[in-house]
Amino acid sequence: MHHLILGAGPAGVLAAETIRKHKPQDAITIVGDEREAPYSRMAIPYLLMGNVAESGTWLRKGQDHYQTLGIKLVQARAKSVDTEQRTVALDTGEPLGFDTLLIATGSQPMRPPIQGLDLPGVHPCWTLEDARKIMLLAVKGARVLQMGAGFIGCIIMESLVARGVHLSVVEMGDRMVPRMMGPTAGGMIRDWCEKKGVEVFTGTRVEAIDAGTPLSVRLSTGKRVSADLVISATGVKPAIGFLENSGITCLQGVLTDEYMQTNVAGVYAAGDCAEAFDKISGKTIVSAIQPNAAEQARVAALNMAGQSAVLRGVTQINVLDTLGLISTSFGDWQGVPGGEHVELTDRQAGRHLSLQFKDDVMVGCNSIGWTEHVGVLRGLVEGQVRLGAWKDALVKDPTRLVEAYIASAQAQNLWQGAADARRRFA
């Protein structure tokens, strides 16, 4: 059999290795559209900081890793998929046939309709090639303007601050990290960044970038900001345009079932381009984080190899370090209709906690500065632990999270997980 994998990121590589483990004689091909060895985008900020060399971003060490495993790497971009003929057309002109296919093409940066986005000195921060261009310009003392203060934007921001630039951040939303944090939490992150010397504009758009040395960036407020470098970090979307007219069902991402299989037999999807079932919200979602990508890839690969594996669910899990301020967002952090919520904020101490409930289950939360409770927060949301009377206790005093988790988990024979949490956070 020939197993074809589109995408050379973490999901694609893990899937190929999993298939090889169970099918030592089958042919496996990974198609990646960059000239680099397979690498992790999440390592790019560490490259920008100078903490790792380019080789430190590689997913696997050793030039012969894939050759040793009998995994063929092809540098090309998929143009279309013919599910009836079981072939993929590549931009190199050579079609590839397959018996099973994994779509693991990940995400691609969104391109806002802004005049001047193609000027020299304006770059996204998504690929190793982008990182090389940014490092040439983001030298100590350089004026850098970043568009976007979402999850990815905040990670990039951290690396830019480490390089010693004068940084301005422009965010269209009314707060930083608007898809992860509520108004109070997002506002606290902004205050923290400004104390660290970052100029932050929220509720503001970049309307145009004018050529010159330096570049002149016009904001929707009428203000102009001079910049030696402009970085576009305005979000990403699943890289699935090549699937048009393929017959593979796509909503926001490639729609999959519990086996990570699409509506076409033998065709699977995993990672940032896949839309899978979220057990907390009861809906399908694209959850673009690496732990979910890895588990989806494992499940898809086992099924491609003739095993039987089921994805137990996808949850929204985000932990963010913004210049030393730790924030979290789990599950349905905005709450659900008819639900209850409680908030506790201590701005002076830099701590905020927002808990969302449906009946006696905590369905989502935000936190800032509560680092000792990260595991417990995730356990309560992801485990859908029934709190019983402890729900009312948490509404009165949200700080009693560990007690509530241990007592409720023990009552539901989930003691081991709660005991582990207690040891980690004692």
Any overview of this molecule?
- The protein is α/β, with parallel strands linked by helices.
- The chain folds into 3 domains: about 1-110 and about 235-305, FAD/NAD(P)-binding domain (3-Layer(bba) Sandwich), CATH 3.50.50; about 120-235, FAD/NAD(P)-binding domain (3-Layer(bba) Sandwich), CATH 3.50.50; about 325-425, FAD/NAD-linked reductase, C-terminal dimerisation domain (Enolase-like, domain 1), CATH 3.30.390.30.
- It is built from 11 helices and 26 strands.
- It has helices at about 10-20, 45-50, 65-70, 130-135, 150-160, 185-195, 290-305, 375-380, 390-395, 400-410, 415-425; strands at about 1-5, 25-30, 70-75, 80, 85-90, 95, 100-105, 105-110, 120-125, 145, 165-170, 200, 205-210, 215-220, 225, 230, 235-240, 255, 265-270, 275-280, 285, 315-320, 325-330, 340-345, 350-360, 360-370.
- It has a 5-stranded parallel sheet.
- Helix 1 runs parallel beside helix 7 (about 290-305), helix 9 (about 390-395) packs antiparallel against helix 10 and helix 10 (about 400-410) packs antiparallel against helix 11.
